[in-house]
Amino acid sequence: MHRVLLTAPDDIDGWRASARQLATQGVDPADIVWQVGDAPDDLFGNIDLEQAATPAAFSVPRAFLDLAESAILHRDPQRFALLYALLVQLRARPGLMQDRADPLLRRVAALAKAVRRDIHKMRAFVRFREMKADGASRFVAWFEPDHHIVRANAGFFVRRFASMHWSILTPEISIHWDSQTLSEGPGAQRSDAPDGDPVEALWQGYYAAIFNPARLKTGAMLSEMPKKYWRNLPEAVLIPDLIAGAQAREAVMIARRPTLPKTQDDSAT
Amino acid sequence: MAQLTTRQKLEILADAAKYDASCASSGTTKRDSRGGKGIGSTEGMGICHAYAPDGRCISLLKILLTNSCIFDCHYCINRRSSDVRRARFTAREVVDLTLNFYRRNYIEGLFLSSGIIRSSDYTMEQMVEVARSLRQDHHFRGYIHLKTIPDADPALLHQAGLHADRLSINVELPTESGLKRLAPEKDGGRIEGAMRHLRSEIEDGQDARRKYKSAPRFAPAGQSTQMIIGADAADDRAIIARASSLYDRHRLRRVYYSAFSPIPSPSAVLPLRRPPLMREHRLYQSDWMIRFYGYDAGEIAAATDAATGCLPLDIDPKLAWALNHRATFPVDVNRAPREALLRVPGLGVRAVDRILLSRRHRRLRLDDVARLTTSIRKLRPFLIAADWRPLALADCADLRARLAPPAQQLDLFT
Ligand code: SF4
Predict the structure, then answer these.
(1) Is B107 in the A-facing interface, judged by CB distances under 8 Å?
(2) CATH number of B6-273
(3) What ipTM was reported for this prediction?
């Protein structure tokens, strides 16, 4: 039995180095326990990897690395083991990455897909609130991701908000940018973030006004903006009232129509 | 009248902009704000930062500079004779609002259009000033879409293109007669002339960039347009033909459709009912078929109903085409070329690409196909797999009934 200790839940480098070594030694996926952090010794005891002087180089397709980079951020504790099992199979079947009907590949691809969606939703739904201190501004957001994506996603916010000072606080980790350097801190709580921002009233006004009550389609909204995100979106408090008012408002508009006779042309539609 | 607050103006000017369907912020150049004093980035796909209860993506701050207008287009809430409350933003106010929203990660950028005040040139100047200030005074690297006014001076359109990612000019109605009747002050010839002009500016810009890396970019996300559906008598066949000729002649990135929506204080020459939202949806599906599935406009026309000239509402146009061309099916999922697989109702581009890759490694069975797609039920009649061969389609008289969704889900409002 081998035990691999990874430094963090998103420790892709650690996983890669260990996986490469284990795979070159032909270690069976069933004989590995993957662990994050310095968890206490368990029933398997501490069996270190044999240190191969130079781990034999073997190459894997780019598609596998892309998939692994995403899938490893999933909160599923099985992710390291699944990826290793896929790696072992891939060495036996080099074309495996193209066989989208393969059950193991499909399972790992589903993990990666969930992670990519989470990354995308974080880019969409982080809402900064401005904090002013000594004439300087810092923009602070509280966000609750589903997976271990925060570190991997930091680059996006750096590229976009490069000249701002900002922090994104999450339960597991916090990241801070001071217009020069990115730093990390421990997880935080919602109450560590500011509880409002005057611009939010404008944003809410915009959100309500841009909504067309004549075309209510709540299903489409919910599939892209599920309720679990609502509590951190300032505009979401308006949704129930907007929906409730929508049908009534359309009825009023139709009732206000002038009552001239229809022309031939009009009735054709 | 009391002075309007920023919030009141925003509500009026966003309300007036919501009938414009476009909110795309994709497909421009990749850029970010690292190492500079600016703000913003664009990285290929635009992001939807929120969804309204109408299901639409909110990606841009979509507003009018003013909803006052000297024109009187009947379908438009801003027309001169409408009794809607009027408001006007200064260029500075729009700039501040855009930056304030952007910094809080509410939006990808700005989509600015305007009613026409004083003159086309004056209005266009104000809009260009917003874009200029964002880019030059604030080094804004986010997305900017300007709706341009066809009659404005070409020099102003040129300025607009230097600052904006995308420009659009709305053709408004699918037919010339519809435009004459419902937008009497607009001129179809001038609208198309302006689109032609933009196309050549965009292409000149691309040529120049090929030769000199430092040449300025001109509207890198191209131009688009919008047509209102259901306000005049044009049928889907006419609409699709018009869209396809616009794509061909002006190299548009997108033609947007906007189902005519009941507006407050409507004009008496408008139809009494709005078209089913499903009609707009079917037109978008046909647009996808042309852009990504290899159909041409003539083939889509063959999927319309002979009597009404419209696409069926109860089934999608790809299925409608297939039912009208039953001899083309079933196709063999293990052997058929990409083009043939793309025509199978229910198979999307991604699923087809996965099938093509996977079948190099195994003979696909129905189960395998099910894993690569979302719904096998709809596909089965059209596919041959290693362990599956359907009845000849010609023998299934009730196929349409079996594949169509229950009717009451179509449109809750008509
Ligand atoms: S010119 Fe534009 S804003 Fe003015 S009435 Fe016509 S469509 Fe509306």
Answers:
(1) no
(2) 3.20.20.70
(3) 0.88
